[in-house]
Amino acid sequence: MSTSTRSTPPPGTQDPPRPKSASSSASRPSHRSWRRAVRRDWQLYSLVVLPLLFFLVFRYLPMIGNVIAFRRFEPGGSILGEEWVGLRYVEMFLTDPTFWQVFRNTLWLGGLTLVFCFPIPIVLALLLNEVRRRALKRFVQSVSYLPHFLSIVIVAGITMQMLATDGPVNHMLGWFGQDPIRFIQEPEWFRTIYVGSEIWQTAGWGTILYLAALTTIDDNLYEAARIDGANRWQQIWHVTLPGIRPTMITLLILNIGTFMAVGFEKVLLLYNPLTYPTADVISTYVYRTGVESNSFSYAAAIGLFEAIIGLFLIISANQLSRRTVGTSLW
């Protein structure tokens, strides 16, 4: 009776085991976990499809049209222009005195909007946070939120009716012996009207994020501040404001990013040829140049210039915020 034995090679002669590829071993689990997550939560991921399509169709694909800023575009011709003209349209608006007047108006309106419209929601949120009567707090919140839900056309109509020559504001001025003021026709009044209407429409709605941020502050911090003898103002300065600082910085960076994109609809509805010297901004100038005058390539060059400035502002604000306070968007 014989038994078969398997011969084994002597030690030192076996082939060393092949090391597994690090890239394959690292990528396979990640792919598997990603697929597993999609299969498990496909309902949640499906909700992202429509927003992604929206940004793709209405935000990213139109960027291809910026090429007509360097090409001569004629209505009815190629959608990407007829022939290359280089920086011709860029040189045109850089040497156009009307453009620089519009550029200064944009800086003025954007700066005034940022200076006045950004801190007022913070102040309003702090004041509402100190209100202890819920009925009063809800009433103030409802009244301050309401203008946000009104159409810009309605807001502009209310503003023009209130400031008309025979409107309520001039009637009240007449009680004090003041002659009627043509607010809508006077260029020096436009910036005040625009910023005032913007504050009225957006201040209440802007408090929502700050009120939500206030709820995340630990009450033990206020108790510790009271034990140290801090009054209400000192608690707001040393506890409340540092607690909502990340939210403030994030919204400030976003507002700086849209600094050049002053509200096109409201300016278009409120201004008129008499107020062009102070009311005409880049967005309305692009509209009149491109749509009304059919100078699409020239308007595209101006719009591209505005977008580049906005990109530079938001990147600079993000870097400055990261270095100074340690909070940034990316």
Give your account of this protein's structure:
With 330 residues, this protein is mostly helical. The protein is built from 17 helices and two strands. A two-stranded antiparallel sheet has the order 1-2. It is globular. The chain starts with 21 loop residues before the first helix and ends in a 6-residue tail after the last helix.
Feature tags:
mainly alpha, globular, disordered N terminus, two-stranded antiparallel sheet, 17 helices, single chain, 330 residues
Which SSEs are present, and which pair or pack?
Layout (H helix, E strand, L loop, with lengths): L21 H19 L1 H5 L2 H12 L10 E2 L10 E2 L3 H7 L2 H21 L1 H12 L3 H12 L6 H11 L5 H8 L11 H28 L4 H9 L4 H12 L1 H13 L6 H7 L5 H4 L2 H11 L3 H29 L6
Antiparallel strand pairs: 1-2
Rg from alpha-carbon coordinates:
30 Å
Strand order, sheet with most strands: 1-2
Structural class: mainly alpha
Could you tell me the mean pLDDT?
85
* Inertia-based shape: globular
